[in-house]
Write a structure and sequence with these properties.
This protein is an all-alpha fold. The protein has 11 helices and 3 strands; from the N terminus they run βαααβαααβααααα. It has a 3-stranded mixed beta sheet with strand order 2-1-3. Helix 2 runs antiparallel to helix 10, helix 6 runs antiparallel to helix 8 and helix 9 packs antiparallel against helix 10. It starts with 8 loop residues before the first strand and ends with a helix.
Amino acid sequence: MESQRNISEFIFLGLSYNQNIQIFCFVFFLFCYVAILVGNLLILVSIRCSPLFHQPMYYFLSHLSSMDICYTSCVTPKLISDLLLGKKTISYGNCMLQVFSLHFLGMIEICILTVMAFDRWVAICKPLHYMIIMNRTRCNLLILVAWAGGAVHAFSQFSMIVSLPFCGPNEIDHYYCDIFPLLKVACTDTYITGILVVANSGMVALVTFVLLFGSYVTILFTLRNHSAEGRRKALSTCGSHITVVVLFFGPSIFAYLRPPTTFPEDKIFSLFYTIIAPMFNPLIYTLRNTEMKKAMRRIWYQKMFSEEEHN
């Protein structure tokens, strides 16, 4: 591998050269990262410390929150430190690790979102068989399949990138190591590799989005036969899921389902699925979910009462 490259690090061009914009971005993304950690950890603790953990939907939601924290942590701390220190470099090894981690965790998140849509479909379309179909053994198996899918996807993407020679320019027009910007600085013809990336990441995003869209359309048709209260509750839950799916998949499809090249807008769209979506997920899943709000209040009150008794 060493003979195929003569560079030891890459230089990120980042989001902007303007110093004032960089200061604003530092403050904004620091706030976003803190919000991501606090929001998703609050969901994790509220679910794990309440009976909600035994319900499949919240079991999957706890895994989604874990993936949100891990996924954004592959990018955001590095982005914040680059904006603060002005040193926008990354070693070759860390760059390859970032590519693998993002695709591994991103694919797991896609699989979990798909599983959550399947869970809602079973709950609404086959309510009498829900607890039989979505038993804990099957839920664990679905999470295991999500991790396996992430590994297969990440290794396939990683193997294509790690085999490329990098011997020329080492400036990446991005704020993290993404596949298309890396293809642009590789010193070989990367057209076939780019097509394979589109066939892999692009089609995964598109096919999953179509399946999710189809499942929610089926749910909406089924809801016609439910009571007004049942429709309201189901629409509230599904509305949260649909919002998260659009926030995550819209930019992802734009980023990967297209000719293998780079655009200036790529960095802006990447912000949606690396930072913005993980930040809004806790808000989306809690503000419109009565059970989550009750669980959070219960945990908070228990903590307050335990502190008062201790004092």
